[in-house]
TrEMBL record:
Keyword Oxidoreductase listed: no
One Gene Ontology MF term: transposase activity
Keywords for this protein: DNA recombination, DNA-binding, Transposition
Source organism superkingdom: Bacteria
Record's function text: Involved in the transposition of the insertion sequence IS5.
A GO biological-process term: DNA transposition
Annotated Pfam families: DDE_Tnp_1 (PF01609), DUF772 (PF05598)
Similarity-based family: Belongs to the transposase 11 family.
Annotated protein name in UniProt: IS5 family transposase
Record's keyword annotation contains DNA-binding: yes
Source organism of the structure: Neoroseomonas alkaliterrae
InterPro entries documented for this protein: Transpos_IS5, Transposase_11, Transposase_InsH_N
Length: 296
C-alpha cells in the first residue's frame, strides 16, 4: 500500500480509501473483497516501524537485486544528478531561523508550544533554483530566473543502459550536489566505468575519488571565469549532455506523473518518501523494460 501511495502521490487516507474501493488495488496488495483494509493510522505506524528499523534501504536493495536477476544488469556506465523536492513552507521569524540553522530542535525553540513544535520541520532548508534564460528571438538578453524552494533534495544514480535507479540519497535542499558523490551514490556493480554528471560535481576531490575507485569521469567542465569556453571543451560537454539527459526521465516521472512532494516532517520521513518513490519508479521501469523485450 505504501508503494501505491508513492506511485500515485496520495495521502495515507486517500490510499486507504482507494485500496478499499478498487479490486485491482486489492489484488496488488494481496487482499480479497472480504478482507479488512489497513487504515491510515496503521499505515502510518507501519511506515514509522520501517523507518526505525532502517528496512526501506534494505527493501530498495532487494528490489534492485531482483531487477538485476531478471537480466537488467547495471551497464554502460552511470549518471548522477539531484532534484529538489518541495515540502510545506515554514513561517518563522529571523530569530527562529537562526536557531534552526544552528541545529536546535523544534522542542527547544518552542518549549511552551509543543503542538506548534510538532508541526515545524527543522530539517528542511531553503535554497534557490536557477533557470538559465534562453536567447530571445530578437536578440535581446533575457533575465535568468531564480526560484526559492523549501524542502529536500533527492540524489540518484541510474545506469545508462536500462535507466533504473541504482543508488539514492536524500538531504536537505541546501546540501551541495557535488559533495554527495562520495557518499555512496556510485554503484560498484556497474559493468562500465564511466560516470556522467553536471558541473556541480566537478571538483578535484571528486576527480581523485573516481580515479581511486577505478571510475572514469565524464563530468561536465566549467566555463573559465572571465573567458569563453574552449571549443573542444564545449564539444565534449555537448556530447556528455546527450547522455546525461537520461537522468531527467526519473525526476520528470516522479514529480509529474507520480506527484512526488514531501507531506511529512523531518529528514528521516522525507528520506522514506523519496526511497519509496524510487522503488515505485523502478517497479514501473521494470514493467516497461519487460514490455519492450520482443520474444525470439
Amino acid at each position: 500500500m505504501l508503494v501505491l501511495q508513492a506511485m500515485h502521490g496520495l495521502s495515507l487516507a486517500q490510499t486507504e480509501y482507494l485500496v478499499a474501493d478498487r479490486l485491482s488495488w486489492m489484488r496488488f496488495c494481496g487482499l480479497g473483497p472480504g478482507d479488512a483494509v489497513p487504515d491510515a493510522n496503521t499505515l502510518w505506524d507501519f511506515r514509522e516501524a520501517l523507518i526505525a528499523a532502517g528496512a526501506l534501504e534494505a527493501l530498495f536493495t532487494r528490489l534492485d537485486a531482483a531487477i538485476t536477476a531478471a537480466g537488467y544488469l547495471p551497464m554502460a556506465g552511470q549518471i548522477v544528478d539531484a532534484t529538489l523536492v518541495a515540502a510545506p513552507r515554514q513561517r518563522n521569524t529571523e530569530a527562529e531561523k537562526a536557531r534552526i540553522k544552528a541545529g536546535e530542535k523544534a522542542a527547544a525553540i518552542w518549549p511552551d508550544k509543543p503542538a506548534k513544535a510538532r508541526q515545524k520541520d527543522t530539517d528542511a532548508r531553503w535554497t534557490v533554483k536557477y533557470s538559465k534564460a534562453k536567447p530571445a528571438a530578437d536578440g535581446k538578453p533575457q533575465i535568468d530566473i531564480a526560484i526559492p524552494v523549501f524542502g529536500y533534495k533527492s540524489h540518484i544514480s541510474i545506469d545508462r543502459r536500462h535507466g533504473v535507479i541504482r543508488r539514492g540519497k536524500t538531504t536537505d535542499a541546501a546540501a551541495h550536489d557535488g559533495a554527495r558523490l562520495r557518499e555512496g551514490l556510485i554503484d560498484p556493480n556497474n559493468t562500465a566505468s564511466d560516470v556522467w554528471a553536471d558541473t556541480a560535481y566537478r571538483s578535484a576531490e571528486n576527480e581523485r575519488y573516481l580515479a581511486g575507485i577505478g571510475r572514469v569521469s565524464r563530468i561536465h567542465r566549467r566555463k573559465p571565469r572571465g573567458r569563453s569556453m574552449p571549443r573542444h571543451h564545449a564539444r565534449a560537454n555537448a556530447a556528455r549532455s546527450a547522455v546525461r539527459a537520461y537522468v531527467e526521465h526519473p525526476f520528470a516521472h516522479q514529480k509529474g506523473i507520480m506527484g512526488l512532494v514531501i507531506r511529512t516532517i523531518g529528514l528521516a520521513r522525507a528520506s522514506a518518501a523519496v526511497t519509496l518513490a524510487n522503488m515505485a519508479y523502478n517497479m514501473k521501469r521494470w514493467c516497461w523494460l519487460d514490455r519492450r523485450v520482443v520474444p525470439a
